[in-house]
């Protein structure tokens, strides 16, 4: 872990905010396992008031006080302030929900996958104990992940603001006909076309909704802004990869439809006809907890179950990959930790 974060939390009692997917059958058992391990090492656990029942931290099965040292917090920006991190139990949807609170408090978020694909999550449920052991030892690193800031302008007046970790999806609110737009990059018009929508995504979001819409997979070490038209009626409506310092704008025509801007599929901004959406690199990143050093390519192959039969490669690389394939749940040794990033899928975000 970074020295700055270590000094910050050495001077006070450690606390971690737990965010959990209420629909998972294994949630209660997993959440209580987390509480038990943290209690053993003197780490306090916070839970949200609206999740206390689903995690059964309010009472046990007989209605008695559960006994774990859990602090119940109201769901709001202050919930994660002062915590060492936010721990998300679920899939990428749960992770995105946790990231909202973590970003407000400028603390990192760690995902444990109870969902299906879970690109953003760092560990699988079967590796829960080892992941928590690394947290207890502070054997982790923090990675800054690029976000986008989004503004809506009507008659050159800002009407709404928001941010996203994965993508801002501009869609036709009427769901009938096409949305007529003009795309602009760095103050210059690029193309006008009719479409179902336009996505502006980060590298984190390149394997989420943008991937489903035909966008490229962008390695997370590369900072960039992606622009992906959705079902565009135009000869030139290809995905674009622009500088992370670019300003992307999408204008809707005054005689067309109203639109909606979906931020990570969780928050919305209204875009009236004739309005304008602008997206730029976010001023505040999302901080991710990293436990191991698995390359992004390995994670992508594993999460998407991509076929790699027939790969030869260099002998040393091949032997290492084959060993990893024989033990898919094996974790790297403690201390062999380096920066690397993950993405999420649209389907997992919606489900989890």
Which features does this protein show?
alpha+beta; 352 residues; 8 helices; Tumour Suppressor Smad4; disordered C terminus; disordered N terminus; NADK; six-stranded antiparallel sheet; Rossmann fold; six-stranded parallel sheet; 22% helix
Report on this structure:
This protein is an alpha+beta fold. The protein has two domains: 15-145, Probable inorganic polyphosphate/atp-NAD kinase, domain 1 (Rossmann fold, 3-Layer(aba) Sandwich); 148-284, Tumour Suppressor Smad4. Helices cover 22% and strands 31% of the residues. It has eight helices and 20 strands. It has helices at residues 3-10, 27-40, 92-105, 128-136, 209-212, 296-304, 315-326, 346-351; strands at 15-20, 44-48, 70-73, 85-90, 109-113, 123-124, 141-145, 148-154, 157-164, 167-172, 179-185, 188-195, 197-201, 225-230, 240-242, 248-252, 259-263, 267-271, 276-281, 286-290. A six-stranded parallel beta sheet has the order 3-2-1-4-5-6, sandwiched between helices. It has a six-stranded antiparallel beta sheet with strand order 9-8-19-16-11-12, with no helix packed on it. It has a six-stranded antiparallel beta sheet with strand order 15-14-13-10-17-18, with no helix packed on it. A hairpin with a 3-residue loop joins β17 (259-263) and β18. α2 (27-40) packs parallel to α4. The radius of gyration is 22 Å and the shape is globular. The two termini are 28 Å apart.
